[in-house]
Design brief:
about 90 residues, mainly alpha, elongated
């Protein structure tokens, strides 16, 4: 299988894992709307899985994209937050 180009534009310029951010946001919103303790346990465990997914795929990305991926990691947060570039400005 051919290695494709590393996407770093669009939403990927703000987070390296937009799918995980979206699913976690949805899960938290649904838990707040439903207000069920039983569903909260399931939802929180599901959110933990989405937090762990990026850690499983990052070694593959480092192996296939090398320095380009390392530079991307330096300037883009794993989930959301400030980038190194933002903190250098303050």
């Amino acid at each position: 299988m051919a290695v494709r180009e590393l996407r770093t534009d669009g939403i990927y310029a703000y987070t390296r894992n937009p799918q995980s951010v979206g699913f976690i946001t949805f899960i938290v919103g649904a838990l707040l709307a439903v207000n069920s303790r039983k569903l909260a346990v399931h939802g929180l465990l599901t959110a933990v899985i989405y937090v762990l997914f990026p850690f499983a795929k990052e070694p593959w990305l480092r192996e296939h994209y090398g320095e380009e991926y390392e530079a991307y990691c330096d300037r883009t947060p794993r989930f959301i937050g400030r980038t190194k570039r933002d903190s250098e400005r303050t």
